[in-house]
Structure formats: C-alpha cells, structure tokens
Write a structure and sequence with these properties.
Distance between the termini: 30 Å
CATH topology: Aminopeptidase
Strand order of the largest sheet: 1-2-3-4-5-6-8-7
CATH class: Alpha Beta
Largest sheet: 8 strands, mixed
Structural class: alpha+beta
CATH architecture: 3-Layer(aba) Sandwich
CATH superfamily: Gcn5-related N-acetyltransferase (GNAT)
Order of helices and strands: HEEHHEEEHEHEE
Length: 176
C-alpha cells in the first residue's frame, strides 16, 4: 500500500543534479546525518541543538511514517554528493492545499557550505515540486540568515512583507 506522499509522487522520487542526488530519507541515514548535522552553528537561526544519532533515528522514523494528517504530505530527502557518496544535508517539503502548496527548507552541513550545494539541492527540490503540480512554494527565513536568503532568491522565491515567529515568509507563486 502506498503512503500519501508516494501517491503524490514527490517523496518517492530521486532527483539528480550535476553533482548531487536527492535521495528519499530513510531511517538508515540517521547515523551519517547525525555527523553531518552535529555543528551547533547550524541551529543559530532555527534554534535547538544537534540531535544525537538515537534521537535523529527516532525523528526519521516519525518523518518516514508520514504525516498523521491525510491532508499534509511530508517529503524529505538527504543530499548525497555523487562524487564521494557522502551525505551533506537535507531538503524537505510539507505539501498541503491538495498538493498545490509546499513549505520548503534546506540545511547543508558546515563542511559543505559555501560550495553552492544548498542552492543546487533547493533548485532540484523546487523543480521536482513544480513538476508534481505544486503552484506555491514557501520558505520561512530568519531576516539575518543571508545564506538562506541567497538560496531562496536563486530558486525563484521572493520575500514578502509577512513575518511568522521572527522569520520572513518567502514565496514563489505560479498561476493556477
């Protein structure tokens, strides 16, 4: 039996870019991703602290099980560097509004920042979402997080005048 995200088509897809593969998140990624996400600096704008491998494994179990709300689709991928096979971060989308709206986020581990990896992964994510019928893509970005703002701008999102929990709402809206 397929999950809601598999029926939507996005979560089961692997996206490829010049250097990266976006691979659907699996619980087995937790050990390597705990290392990738271990730098406390990654939480400067989002809050929280890095999760230890058992806690990240439990989180990935919840994420891969899917949203308890049938109207909400959780789509999560790890970013794999094709050249080395190493994981370097994650991208995610929460799809709502009958598949028409997606809230997206991305994170790249500290050793892989400033190499265009987040931009390349986010471009692939947005393209995949649009290919599967999403018409509005939203990101929430802290106003001082210039790196994330640059990624959002590069993938076609623009800041709005709306703020939620101290973050600016960025949007890409296509005609229906």
């Amino acid at each position: 039996m397929k999950t809601e995200t598999e029926r939507h088509g996005t979560a089961a897809a692997t996206a490829r870019t010049e250097r990266l593969d976006l691979v659907p998140l699996a619980v087995a990624h937790a050990a390597e991703m705990a290392e990738v996400l271990a730098d406390p600096a990654l939480h400067s704008f989002t809050g929280g602290t890095p999760l230890a491998e058992p806690d990240l494994r439990a989180r990935y179990e919840r994420l891969t099980a899917g949203s308890p709300d049938p109207a909400v689709l959780w789509c999560n991928w790890v970013i794999r560097l094709r050249a080395s096979g190493r994981l370097a971060g994650t991208v995610q989308a929460t799809v709502t509004d009958a598949g028409r709206t997606a809230e997206v986020a991305w994170v790249t581990g500290t050793p892989w920042q400033r190499q265009g990896i987040a931009r390349e992964a986010a471009e692939a994510l947005v393209a995949l979402l649009l290919e599967h019928g999403v018409r509005t893509v939203v990101a929430h970005i802290h106003p001082d997080h210039t790196a994330s703002a640059s990624v959002a701008r590069a993938v076609g999102l623009a800041p709005t005048d709306q703020e939620e929990d101290g973050e600016v709402r960025w949007e890409l809206r296509l005609p229906s």
